[in-house]
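This part of the workshop introduces the protein records we will be handling. To make this concrete, we reproduce a full record directly below.
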Amino acid sequence: MRTFFATSLLIAGLAGGVFGHAPVNGGEVRRRKSLGFGPELPHAKFHANPYQIQTNGFMPMGSASDPFVVATAFLDDLLSGQTGLNSRYKIRKDSYTDVNTGVTHVYVRQMVNGLEVADGDINLNIKDGMVLSYGNSFYAGPTDDLASSLIGDVRHPHREHCETLLAELQLRVAERYSSGEQLPMSSPASVDEDELAHLVESNCAFVDLPYDLASKGFASQEAVDDPRAALLQFMVAATPNQDVVQDVLSNFDAHFEKMSVSVVHHFDDPESAPPFEISNVPDTVNPVKARLAYVQVPNKAGDSTELNLVWKFEVEMSDNWYEAAVSAAAPHRIVSVVDWASDAPIPKPKPGAPATYNVFAWGTNDPSEGKRSIETENVDALASPWGWHALPVANDPSMKGVRPSSPNAIRNTTSTWGNNVFAHENWEGQNSWINNYRPEGHKGNVFDFPYDPQATNKTAALGEAKKFIDIAVTQLFYTSNLVHDLYYRYGFDEVAGNFQQHNFGRGGAENDAVIANAQDGSGFNNANFMTPPDGQNGRCRMYLWNTANPYRDGDLEAGIVIHELSHGLSTRLTGGPANSGCLGWGESGGMGEGWGDFLATTIRSTKNYSDYSMGSWAANREQGIRNFIYSLNETVNPSTYKTLDKPGYWGVHAIGEVWAEILWVVSNGLIDVHGFSDSLFPPAPLEDGTIPEGDFYRPVEYTSAGKKKPLIPKHGNTLSVQLVLNGMKLQPCRPSFFEARDAIIQADQILTGGENFCTLWTGFSKRGLGPDSRVDGRTPWGGGIRTDDYDLPSKCKTA
């Protein structure tokens, strides 16, 4: 460990001299420690070409066929002869049918010897008896003898990841140093003076800890069926608290004995190994969930994978929520880790008067763009049938232990507490939230509070910002509910994994409304969102920005809020609602950031085209917090796919801004063809629940069999949002830029019959993501040598 880390510090010191930027306007930046790495599976593929799908003996079935029967037939054909006798699969319960497109998204998990292969995923997209596309990362090797998965010294993926990272950083820093290239001023998240040191230290400070502990003879580590030692070692690597680190290392056996393990039985899933809950784990805020599983690790040649037996942990901490795989046998090595933080029918209640809010209205990105106005609760009978302030007592976390007057009792609230969002202050920066302060609406649910912050001295600046907590929480509640309703109307509904306490009998897992912290006291100049699987609350934390006097409040910059909430959208839609580990690092993790920027920018855009920055008001910087503002002008924003090879573009935020720029170009190509809609919100549903076309959708069309076709947005900006969300549903777990691109193009084929095929390809090709673009030597961190392609498919070329 000493040799590796000494080298990493040398690189970090060099990087500080080459890339160094002061924090934005001298403001403090509290950089959240976050682990995130895992193997690049060489055999994982996304197949969207019909010639790649109808293989072997499988043929399309009749249009009326049950999609799950189709899925089973296809899987049996696809997997025949590829895996050993001990390998099976199960179709996950979060599979669902998109009510608009009619596509059934089937999520499949590989099973070996009764255990899940945690990264063995197949996602099938099925309609009318046909498999339209599928992604496949199933382990294809032998399963009859997996003794090697228990051998403690076969592979050390954590060390290998860090060696790859260090080599990549050495190369990029050397290239930057020799070329003298200067990146433009950027965000603390991308090229700050300690970016390299932070990245290496967060992920690699304890790569040799498993061997250090094993050499000291901790007998408890030899028990493969006991998760405590593996978890304790992970906590040493994961916690940012050095006091906790030293305490665990000094008193390992004492902590081991203090931790208690209980079995959690699920009678509805008898094939899976029983999960465990582990209590009294240092630096956690809730019991840790644990389960035995297999994960795949590429072999030394890098052309296939081997199975390793691991403990899968879900670890909830104050600043992080990890899904980690740690080898079950000692020495307990971290194999992969994803941080979920990025950055009977109940009767309808009696309708009350809609609440009103004095806020910066939807479309007003921040206080620099306009004044506040009185806005009415947006009662969308489809997205939020009961409005924003009502939820069943049975689903209300503040009513636990309270016996309702009837099983179907409903609570109408007068604060920023509802079925979609719980918004409140979190000045202490702690995990508790139910009893935190939130404003009460005046008579008739009127949320009208003053906002007039004044410049003051440094010691009084925080107190001045806290005076306006009522408007901060109200604004966060208002924006978050509108984002919920907007994304719902484009297909992020209950079965797709959206965030609601009560799902109105429409499927999906309940009790997962967004916990929204305003003026979170755990840091400055940042924001983040934690996305656990469907059925667990998402957590959004907004911070104050000390980049100006008076302080600026991230709650009041809609683009930041929308970006964070969009992490919940993309994480739940990619790979299925119950799989939150699909956007953890590299290109897939970067796209998780890019979708947030793209959607936030699309929401604030108008028919009069303009370039846009991200976070410019909060950061008090005209250029915002990204390397470039989003622009169609290649002089203003020169980003192409090849840009990801440049120094400073290994972080997910930098990768994400390239993806967002590409989507911005693609979207504006659709706008050139189809025009612009002043509102992204579809028309309100009619009394019978049907959606009128209005000037939003094209006239309804029917198939030859009289079946209603999916609704198609008329305008380019609304169509682009629909295609991007539909593409998230189609793409596989851990997608690359190529696979996300292909999923969007297939989404158009499903929705419009492919009429925008050439428009989409033109947009992608303008920024180097044409059909022959490629990456050689891809690494899990996002490294590799990329080749831009500006060409078009042959069918799009004119004579």
The domain at 45-139 is CATH 3.10.450 (Nuclear Transport Factor 2; Chain: A,). Residues 55 and 556 are 53 Å apart (CA to CA).
